[in-house]
Amino acid sequence: MPKEPAYCLPKFPRRHQYTWPRVETQTHPLQADGHDLKCSVPGKKVSFKTEDGRERRIGICKTIAEASRIYSKEYAADGEWKWLNENRRATYLSALQASDTDALFQAFSSLFRHDASYGIVTGTYADFCDTTKQKSLINGILCDVDTWLDYTNSTPEPYLSMPDVGMPYGVQFGDNLVSPDLCRHDYHAEKILGLAEDVNTSGATVLEIGGGYGGVAYQLFKRCPSKKHRWIIVDLFETLCVQYYWLSCCGIAVDFAIDGCIKHDSALVTLVPSDLADKINVHVDIVYNCNSFSEMARSSVENYFDLMNKQWKPSYIFHQNSDVLLFPDSPRHVEVLASEFPIGKSYQEIYRTLSPWAGGNGRYREYLYKKLASA
User: Fold this and answer.
1) Is the model more confident about 7 or about 71?
2) Is the model more confident about 99 or about 22?
């Protein structure tokens, strides 16, 4: 049987014994099998596993503080992230702007329970501890596990295992913690890995625009032990610092490119501030984005697609974004719909499909575009 193309339309999920609708008023069957919350039930006595290498983690925070001093630019987020920075991330941003190593260490040590991660994780730790919201969030994770089993044809070990960095929370499966977004991150990593092999079997370069805490990059290198591929993240500087800490603590070699120039060294992941995206000086095989194009100002979206069409010219553009305007009167940000993205005539749409993952209230779609041979 011929090998299935890396860019084929995702199969409709086969249904299995744990299939369950996304409901808020019932309990997913997996919970009946003993899969409970880890370190997240108010009043429950828990023991937190201490992260290894305190001195090393302090050293990582010192590197971030120094990068902040060198970058020394005023944070200039737009769209949804302008509102989030101004209203939800004040403690973290104050520590970063002051290049305060001690305060950064405190923020990153409890990353997933701190405002440093606000907006880059589905839900919040406060929601996870709120009994009125808890069931919905747990069911979201469990349904994501359900979907992941269908789409990846993989076994949970070792892929569905959140590293013990930044005090993550989620649902316990055996010795592994499945956190919010982990299933989606791994599915996207598997998809990108297939595209990378299709483009360049000796090693491809993936450029991710908006990288969250670095979860997709981490999952890709977990799935590709040879580490022959390279990953670039373009993001707001304040979020790059989150990625630098988390990925470094997870054992991934990371480097800042504060001037936008990519060094050809041992770093698997290179972090480029978004205002320097046009300075990227290497060939890009795949551009990937998840959710954040819709969260940007329209001018920023247009700028990124202009770079894709005229400068980077990747073989594939793979993204998930909103294509249903659920909040047309939002005081925070009116989303840019995916159907309005200026893809350009050099790319052919391979597929679009509903995103099956928790979060988004059904407004997200997954898209894959391939550069035309004639382009």
Assistant:
1) 71
2) 99
List, in order, residues 6 or more apart from 71 with CB less than 8 Å away.
237, 258, 273
Asked whether the beta carbons of 335 and 304 are under 8 A apart, the reply is: no
Confidence of residue 49 (pLDDT cuts 50, 70, 90): very low
Q: How far is CA 150 from CA 17, 105, 319, 344, in A?
A: 11, 39, 20, 33
Is pTM beyond 0.90? Reply is no
The average confidence (pLDDT) of the chain is 86
Helix ranges (H only) for the chain are 54-71, 79-88, 90-97, 101-109, 125-129, 131-152, 156-159, 182-199, 215-223, 237-249, 292-295, 298-307
Find the mean pLDDT for residues 310-327: 96
With tokens 């429950």, the residue in question is 44
HSE-CB of 30 using CA atoms within 13 angstroms: 23
Q: Which amino acid is at 271?
A: L
Read off the tokens for 258: 């504060």
| Cα Rg of the chain, angstroms | 20
Count of positions (residues) in the chain: 375
d(CA 247, CA 217): 9
Q: Which neighbouring-strand residues pair with 273?
A: 235
Nearest to 248 by CA among 53, 73, 91: 53
CA-CA distance, 20 to 167, in Å (whole number)?
28
Domains of the chain: 183-371 (3.40.50.150)
